[in-house]
Amino acid sequence: MYKLLDYDITEYKQLENTLNELSKQGYNPTSLGKISRFEKNDKHYYYHVDLLIKKATTPKRKALHDFINDYEKQMFDYYGKIGKFIIFTTDNKRALPKERQKAIDEYLSTRKISATTYFVLVLFFAFFVAQLVLQKNQVQEFLTNGSILIHYLPLILFATILVRCLYKIVLACQKNFNKLIKKFFYVMSVLTCLVAIFGCILDISERKDTPLNKNILTLEAFDKETNKKEYPQYKQTKSILVETSSYFEKNNQGDLMYSKDYHFKSNEKTNTFFKRYLDTYNDVPVIKIDKNTYLFKLDTSYDTLLYKKGNHFYFVSANFSLKNHYQTIIKFYR
Asked: Is the C-alpha dihedral spanning 163, 169, 170, 171 positive or negative?
């Protein structure tokens, strides 16, 4: 059988008790790790768990070798290790050597300070990440429900890390509700994984290619040669916030254009994201036709148009000037 042995170093006694209880039932580990394999062999061992506490200047391999030798001199048999946990067995129940118990207690007394410091640092960093995630984001972050989940995933991830840090502090303080926080951490971890997986699946499934129709702006609207045979489809996305249609076309003369139609659920959302879109072009030349129509000079000509109408706003960009074509675009979308 397999068993999860996910213990913090402050829970070394709990790990020891778990191994001893299973050994009483005849189950002993054949491989040790966070997930350990146990086999029933009807042998009863007495397990003893210690922590490998070494000086920073001492090589880990040498420290472990010397550590095991010291125990074997006192008639303890080395069984294996899980991280900092070093596991020994004896044929009878014995306590850890007194000097080892003292060293463990001194080491664990520093855990409360380090865990609290770590919690404060993570809290500060989580606040910084939250500011980035919750800032005035562009509509491109919300094109699908999957992209919305992925956008907010860092908040869930850091909430999970904070719960883990809190769990460490509670363990260091030896409070009785650490099991509840540990279970909550596991729930948060599973939730984080599900959001990540479900977000990716949704993002892929909510993007689709659709055959062209008369509502899609093409080069033909500008009296230029069209190339619909090579570009017969436009892309559609849909979320709880916005529905989007986008199309790219290039003809044999080298003319190309890219258009996007953002259809929001309300005028309020349309106005909000239209303004955010405008703000991204603050540092480029602009011609304001009216409060809903703007031409931008992104290259050598005014080649980009932003136009708002009702719950829609439209983005059109080309490699030719739209200064003489913006009325054509407005008429098309009206």
From this structure: positive
**Per residue, what are the HEC states of 194-248?**
HHHHHHHHHHHHCEEEEECCCCCCCHHHHCCCCCCCCCCEEEEEECCCEEEEEEE
Residue carrying structure tokens 């003809």: 251
Token pair of 288 as six digits? 């304001």
The pTM for the full model equals: 0.66
pLDDT exceeds 80 at position 111? no
**What is the separation of C-alpha 2 from the centre of its chain, rounded to a whole number of angstroms?**
29
Q: Please give the Cα distance from 179 to 18 (Å, whole number).
A: 15
Cα separations in angstroms, 6 against 18, 48, 117: 11, 17, 23
Calpha distance 181→166 (Å, rounded)? 8
Token digits for 292? 């809903």
Joined together, the tokens standing for residue 323 give 């200064």
Cα distance between residue 323 and residue 296, in whole Å: 9
What would the pLDDT profile of 126-172 be if each residue is shown by its tens digit? 777 777 666 767 888 889 999 999 988 888 888 888 888 777 777 66
Look at 132 and 112; give whichever has higher pLDDT. 132
Mean pLDDT on 310-320 = 93
Partners of 256 in the beta sheet?
250
Residue 33 DSSP symbol: S
CA pair distance 107, 115, nearest whole angstrom: 13
Amino acid, res. 279:
D
Does residue 81 contact residue 32 with C-beta atoms inside 8 Å?
A: yes
